[in-house]
Amino acid sequence: MFNKEFLKTLTVMYVEDDESIRGSMAGIFSKIFGEVIICNDGALGLEQFKDYTINKKLKVDAIVSDINMPNMNGIEMVQAIRELDTEVPIVFTTAHGESNYLMDAIKLQIAYYALKPIDTTELLQNISKFCMIEHNKQLIFQKEKEISIYMDIINNISSMFKFNTNGHITESNDMLSEVSQYSKAELENIKIDDILHNDSIVANYNGLLNILDDNNSYKGKIKFIAKDGTTFYLNSTIIPSYNNSTAEIDGYIYIGFDQTTEELEKQKTMQRVRQNIITQRTKESGLVKHVKELEDDIIKLKRTSLDSSDTQLLIDKLNKEKEKVSKLGLQDEHYEEIVTTLTKQKDEWVSGGINKIRDKSKDKNDSQRENKKLQTKIIELQSKVSKLEAKLRPTSYE
Predict the structure, then answer these.
(1) Residue 375: what pLDDT?
(2) Average pLDDT over residues 60-64
């Protein structure tokens, strides 16, 4: 079955001079394809193709055309179109007995012959197939363009070279020349073994082949040696290169990003770490020795001074003293509570006493005032009594 969704993306030009056939097929094509250009002869077909592709800058994906037509037949129309477009798939619809056009059609790279009466399903399947082939070719072309752009970018920021199956470098870029200190001419006359470092994961071409995976590729860091004997490190990607004719591997493409600064810094860090480990181990050894000396001193002290029973007595005595201190602490707390309570009571008693004294003082003052009043009354009464007594005393005559 044909891909209906894919066919809906296509623009097809249909050229047919028979009005009945043209109307019938145009109706079917309009339902199947995204856009259909209908023409009744070859001259109009050529004109419409030019207008659509040159003036409108659009793409005709396929052409379905009759051969025998007035004004310009199908062969003549396709000859003119092929001067403009050599790739567009073309299908001829033809009746029996027109085999004399076969050789001309082959020269024009006709994709398919559809005999009348046309089998619509078969025709659509073939159009779909040939358009899909052309579509995939365009995709590949676009991808190749993208890859070419990417490779140009990578070429400017990485070391790149190619080497054949003998390990000889065949191509190199400026970046590799810069980091290796070899000229490009020198690089392309030596083997990859000459720039691989002896301490690297691979020291020669055969060692390189051994680290390739099942896809004949490799990703990882490789150590190289420059012309002056200094080392440099590349974060490497190696992929196979294929022969276009035989499709067999004829060499490898190498892409490497400079990691020399990072690697040297990493090595310095590792050296510092190793030095720190050595220092710590030295300290640890000294501490272990000191601990052993202390343990020996303790053993000597035990032997020369206190035996185990004396030690236990001292411990017991110490515990008792601790217990006393603890009890004294509890007693202190108890006494502090008592002092607080007594102080409170004292304050209450003092306050009450002062109030009582004040009350008594008040009562005394009141009594004194009453006494004064009484004394005044007594004096008054005594005066009255004296006067009465004077009156009662007998009178004397002369």
Answers:
(1) 63
(2) 96
Q: What is the pLDDT of residues 65-76, one digit of tens each?
A: 999 898 899 999
Superfamily of domain 4-148: Response regulator (3.40.50.2300)
Helix (H, G, I), strand (E, B) or coil at 63: strand
pLDDT tens digit string along 142-172? Answer: 888 888 888 788 888 889 999 999 999 999 9
First vs last C-alpha separation in the chain:
189
Mean pLDDT, the chain, whole residue set: 80
Q: How far is CA 107 from the centre of its chain?
A: 57
Burial 57-76 (b: 16+ CB within 10 A, else e): eeebbbbbbbbebeebbbbb
Candidate CATH numbers 3.40.50.10990, 3.30.450.20, 3.10.180.10, 3.40.50.1100; the one for domain 158-258:
3.30.450.20
Ramachandran assignment for 171, one of left (phi > 0), alpha (psi -120 to 50 degrees), beta (any other): beta
CA distance 177 to 181: 6
Cα–Cα distances (Å) from 173 to 1, 136, 228, 234, in that order, read 50, 32, 19, 14
Confidence band, pLDDT 50/70/90 cuts, at residue 83: very high
Which residues in 300-324 are b (16+ Cβ under 10 Å) and which e?
A: eeeeeeeeeeeeeeeeeeeeeeeee
Highest mean pLDDT pick, 92-96, 230-234, 350-354, 389-393: 230-234
Torsion of CA 291, 297, 302, 305, to 10 degrees: -150
Q: Where are the alpha helices (DSSP H) in the chain?
A: 4-7, 19-32, 42-50, 74-82, 102-107, 120-157, 174-180, 184-187, 205-210, 260-304, 308-392
